[in-house]
Amino acid sequence: MKQEYQFLSITTKPFVKWAGGKRQLLPIITRNIPEKFERYYEPFLGGGAVFFNLVSQDRKVKWFVSDLNSDLILSYATIRDRVKEIISALEAHAENYFKNPNPYYYKVRENNPKGQIDKVSRLIFLNKTCFNGLYRVNSKGKFNVPLGRYINPNIVNKENLLAISRVLQSKDISIKCQDFEVALKHVGKEDFVYLDPPYQPISTTANFTSYTNGNFDYQDQKRLFEKFKSLDRKGAKVLLSNSKSKEILDLFEEFAEGIIEINANRFINSVSQKRTGHTELLIKNF
Ligand SMILES: C[S@@+](CC[C@H](N)C(=O)[O-])C[C@H]1O[C@@H](n2cnc3c(N)ncnc32)[C@H](O)[C@@H]1O
C-alpha cells in the first residue's frame, strides 16, 4: 500500500514587537530573497520577522542569527530551552496584570531580576503591555517606556512560543549575541546575508537609535558598508535595508543598480502625525 506522508510545517512569527520590525515589509523582502543558498545570516535579528518567515519554510539551510542586544538573545535561547517555564511565568504576569494593570506594570518595570526565566518573562511582558510595544532603554540601560493603552493585550501567545521552541530545537540554528562584523566572519560564496541595521536617521528629529544602550552611528554605517563590499567580493548574496537618506545613497553609490525604493509605514514615533508613509531602501548585490 502506498504510504502517504504529511509534512506539517510550523508557522512562527516574532514573539516581541521590535523597533524597525519587518513584518509589514515581508512581501517585498521575500520577493528579493534568492531561491537557493547554503547558509542564512541575519546579524541584526531584532524581532526576527524575516528569519521566522523563512525558517517556517522547508529550506535545507544552516541558520546563523545574532544581535548585539544580550537580553533579546537570552530570550531566544530561553524560549528554545525552557519554553514551558516561560509560559508559566507569563501566565502569572498576565493574571497579576489583569487584576490591576497600572501598578503591576510599573512594579515589574522597576524590578531588575537576575534569574533567566524572570528576566525573559519580564522582557516579553513589558513588550506586550508597554506603550507602542517597543523595547527601548535609556542611557543607563533601563527600560523606560510607559504603560500602553491596550484593553486586552495578548501577553501569553502560547501557540507561537511553543512553535518557536520546536523550530529552534529542530533546525540547525546558531543564535548568538555579537557584533555584526564578528557574526559575518565566515560567510562564503554560497551564502545569503540579510542586513537590517538600525537606520541612518533622515532628519535630526528622527534619531531613534536606542535599541541597545550603545548607539549605531554613521561610523557604524560605514563599517557596515565596508562589510557589504567584502561580502560582495567573496561572492555572497547580500540584501540590506536602510533609510532613504543622503548618507546611505552616497555610501552605496557603486551598488546603485541594486537599489529598490519602497514606501513604508513606520510606527516608531509616538507622535501619531509622524506616522506617515516614507521611502526606505532595499539594496542588493545580486
Ligand atoms: C532594525 S533592528 C532589526 C529589526 C528586525 N529586522 C525585525 O524584524 O525585528 C536593528 C537591530 O540591530 C541590533 N544592533 C545594533 N547594533 C548592532 C551591532 N553593532 N551588531 C549587531 N546588532 C546590532 C539592535 O539590537 C536591533 O535589534
Q: What distinguishing features does this structure have?
A:
single chain; 286 residues; alpha/beta; Rossmann fold; Adenine-specific Methyltransferase, domain 2; 2 domains; 7-stranded mixed beta sheet; 10 helices; 14% strand; disordered N terminus; binds S-adenosylmethionine
Structure description:
- By secondary structure, this protein is an alpha/beta fold.
- The protein has two domains: 26-70 and 170-284, Rossmann fold; 77-158, Adenine-specific Methyltransferase, domain 2, CATH 1.10.1020.
- Helices cover 37% and strands 14% of the residues.
- The longest helix is centred in the N-terminal third of the chain and has 17 residues, at 83-99.
- 35% of the residues are buried.
- The protein binds S-adenosylmethionine (SAM).
- Residues 18, 20-22, 43-44, 46-49, 67-69, 179-180, 196-198, 211-212, 216 line the site of S-adenosylmethionine.
Q: Helices, strands, pairings?
A:
Blueprint: H1 26-31, E1 39-42, H2 49-55, E2 62-67, H3 70-81, H4 83-99, H5 101-110, H6 116-129, H7 158-170, E3 173-177, H8 180-183, E4 192-195, H9 218-234, E5 237-243, H10 246-251, E6 259-265, E7 277-284
Parallel strand pairs: 1-2, 1-4, 2-3, 4-5
Antiparallel strand pairs: 5-7, 6-7
Helix pairs in contact: 3-6, 3-7, 4-5, 4-6
Bound molecules: S-adenosylmethionine.
